[in-house]
Specification:
The chain is an alpha+beta fold. It is 29% helix and 33% strand. Strand 2 and strand 3 form a beta hairpin. The longest helix has 14 residues. It is flat, with a radius of gyration of 13 Å. The N and C termini lie far apart (38 Å).
Length: 66
Amino acid sequence: MSQQPIVVLSESEASNCNRDRKTIAFEIDVLGKPVRICFGINKEQTKLADIVPPAQEVCQKIIDVV
């Protein structure tokens, strides 16, 4: 079973994604402030280490709000 890599995108990158990448965008509420997150998903196999940078970026977005 092929897993798909997850890449955190900025809003401008998400709007300019190529057709081989699907995006999932959502917004979470952190202390009453919205944090918008957009993931780009490719059709390639990934490793556990591939999700660390996006996870760090999501954490940083939350820290920036706090």
